[in-house]
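Hello, quick one for you while I still have it in my head. Could you read through the record and tell me how the tokens relate to the sequence? No rush at all, and the record is pasted right below.
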Amino acid sequence: MTSGLPHKQTVFLIEEQANPSTDFFILPIFSADNYTVIRCRHADLPNREALAQALVIFVRYIPSAWVKLITATRHQLRGLIFFMDDDVLDFSASAQMPLSYRNKLVRLALSRYTWLRRQNARLWVSTPYLADKYADWQPKLVLPTPTPFPERIRRIFYHGSVATHKADIRWLRPVLEEVLHKDQHAVFEIIGKQDVFRLYQGLPRVTVLHTLKWPAYQAFLAMRERHVGLNPLLDIPFNRARSYTKFFDITRCGAVGIYTPNTACAAVINHQQQGLVVGLDQAAWAQAILSLTQNDAYWQTLLHNAQAKMLELTVQAQHVYTDLRKFDN
């Protein structure tokens, strides 16, 4: 006895990595409930049995391992499609591109042309230009759909200078690895150069920004929408002389800070009132970040308190300025 529910059709999307081509053009086609979409990177090979009556779509490129797999299983597929949103099947079209990129096109796209035709693959293209150029293949024109942004992004950031905070930047790496794994809505922003990029490149949703001059950095901070600011200070002589200006930077851009005990920032706030003060334990820092990214009410309370504290510190500074101006010429 059947349940009466429609049978879901399986679609394998083969892509080098997550990319705009798939998100703009292909995924919207199969967003209905009656499709099961399986996204595979080039090295991800399913069992042959899983391909039975499946639709296989190659996005831009066709790796050699998949050529062998599809050649052996083509008879059991429901369909085979190649999608391109650049002219990757004509070597002359890439004449002004870098040689390394052109070689990639030859290896993963152009060299597959005959194989695709022999496998009776359908061609999907992104523009009328491509549809006209490959008209003999009777291609289908695919129109793009705007990709929806995640509904609840929580931006975590660390803006310590690489020149003076290299050890702190390295210490944070496993902290962010855990946070980004556990909270799919969390993103991380850090300032640095190539060495920082290499250190964090294996983590998802990380943006490494180039070092900014102070005026540009101030303008950058004014673009708010940040949620958690990190200020880990390892116990080294250079860090002991730091003031609490990072508390200002973090609070001004609408974020709640996490600070290290026995530092200037920790001295001007109360733990769990205007921010969090957490010992240099990486697991504890990961948990502290998650407590803020996953509890909006708690985060909002701490932010409100931090903003009030910043005003209080500003008033204190004004009193000091008045006294400093009382000097003899």
About this structure: The longest helix spans residues 296-324. The two ends are 99 Å apart (CA to CA). The CA atoms of residues 124 and 140 lie 5 Å apart. The chain has two domains: 9-141, 154-320.
